Amino acid sequence: MHLPTMKKYVIFILLLLGLTATSFKKPQAKLTVAVAANMQYAFKALQADYEKSSGVTIDAIIGSSGKLTQQITEGAPFDVFISADTKYPQILYQNKLIPDTPRVYANGVLVLWSAKPGIKPTADLGMLLGQHVKAIAIANPATAPYGAAAEEILKNDHLLDKVRPKLVYGESITQTSQFIATGAADIGFTAKAVVLSNEMKGKGIWVELDAKQYAPISQAAVLLSHGVKNNAQSSKAFYDYLYSNRAKKILKQFGYLVK
Question: pTM, whole model, 2 decimals?
Answer without folding.
Answer: 0.82
